[in-house]
Amino acid sequence: EKSGYDHYMLKEIHEQPRALRQTISGRIDAEDGTVNVDVDLPSEYVDSVDEIQIVACGTSNYAGRYAAELLESIVDVRTTVEVASEYEFDGGRDPWRTLVVAVTQSGETADTLSAIRRAKRAGARTLAVTNTLGSTIVRETDDSVFIRAGPEIGVAATKTFASQVATLTLLAVHVGRARGSLSYGRARELLESVRRLPNAIQGVLDREDRIREVAREYADSDAFFFVGRKLGHPVALEGALKLKEISYDHAEGFAAGELKHGPLALVTEDTPVLALLTDGSRPGETLNNVKEVQARGAPVIGAATADGDGEAAADSTYLDVELPVPATGALEPLVANVYWQLFAYHVADEKGRPIDRPRNLAKSVTVE
Ligand code: F6R
């Protein structure tokens, strides 16, 4: 069932364009700039919401962070993201005007379920964004939206991350339009980014040979640092998580601007820095941080918006490896994430790790 791939993870990485087409199928009206995500949130309720709280763990939490950046700008509602195991909703703020969104691929993560139970007890409305029909989270929340990524077998979440971000973007457009806070023009622009995602990701997948070469070249490094700003920050965190899970190497993700506030002390010529330099992640500012690490001898692998010729447009003087990312607006960091997935996969494969079943980890974590 791995369809010729050595691992489910690689198969699922390659399934992303198809998974995303399913995620968005029938949900976008590009002409109207509207979205139908089959969720029955009454419009009076949507109007009255003054806070959105996202709760999730691991990769789903990073999808939540990506969405929160977008939500704050699109919907103009205060949005927070919490690690579900840290969530305490005591009803102190106005529970009736708070929408609590659980992002969970499996729908069975114990920490996320208990966060949702707390929110419900305090009187908040709850919404699940999940991949799993009939899961516990679906039964326990007021509404649910399915990401439709298809079953994911590899322990490392890949295609579900992409489909979660796409679904949350659609949800944000839906809520933004319903509240009147999102203009027609901006809605169309965002929906166009979503529509372009499958082909853009295919463009990255077509460069797998290059990223395999890069992964082999740097596989024996001491540690790996992923950096990005804004929408690039959750992608940096996700890139590092993927690499540590399956290769067992030390990897960390930082907001690029934080490098100089500590992590720079760890940077040497044996610590490659993987930098996001795309639209939506303030590439010009991140390039300044890249210069700082390069001056310390670190190899820099940069994923940057492609120019008209399909080559990376960032200032290549500062990059040891340039990876071009097809133009996709606000979703470009999500497209670039596929390079980080392939990088993690090929580093782990080079080391002969049991990629689909990394030590000590389970696909769904049903204990708190
Ligand atoms: C990482 C990974 C985990 C899950 C986390 C939440 O690759 O798979 O970090 O994202 O355990 O799982 P769900 O989304 O099922 O709640």
What this model shows, in words?
With 368 residues, this protein is an alpha/beta fold. It is built from 12 helices and 12 strands. It has helices at residues 8-14, 16-24, 43-48, 58-74, 110-121, 136-140, 159-179, 184-205, 208-218, 232-247, 283-295, 332-350, and strands at residues 28-29, 34-35, 51-56, 78-83, 98-104, 125-130, 143-146, 224-228, 251-255, 273-277, 300-305, 321-325. A 5-stranded parallel β-sheet has the order 4-3-5-6-7, with helices on both faces. Strand 3, helix 4 and strand 4 (78-83) form a beta-alpha-beta unit. Helix 7 (159-179) packs antiparallel against helix 8 and helix 10 packs parallel to helix 12 (332-350). The radius of gyration is 20 Å and the shape is globular. The two termini are 32 Å apart. The relative contact order is 0.14. The mean pLDDT is 94. It binds fructose -6-phosphate. Fructose -6-phosphate (F6R) is lined by residues 57-60, 104-106, 109, 112, 156-157, 241, 245, 364-365.
The overall average pLDDT, rounded, is: 94
Q: What's the number of helices?
A: 12
Q: Which compounds are bound in this model?
A: fructose -6-phosphate
Number of beta-strand segments: 12
- Compute the CA-based radius of gyration: 20 Å
Shape: globular
- The SS-based structural class is alpha/beta
- The fraction of residues assigned to DSSP E strands is 15-25%
Q: Summarize the amount of helix as a percent range.
A: 40-55%
Order of SSEs, N→C?
HHEEHEHEEHEHEHHHEHEEHEEH
Q: CA-to-CA gap between the ends?
A: 32 Å
Major β-sheet annotation? 5 strands, parallel
Low-confidence stretches: none
Strand order of the largest sheet: 4-3-5-6-7
EC number: 2.6.1.16
Keywords: Aminotransferase, Cytoplasm, Glutamine amidotransferase, Repeat, Transferase
Function: Catalyzes the first step in hexosamine metabolism, converting fructose-6P into glucosamine-6P using glutamine as a nitrogen source.
GO molecular function: carbohydrate derivative binding; glutamine-fructose-6-phosphate transaminase (isomerizing) activity
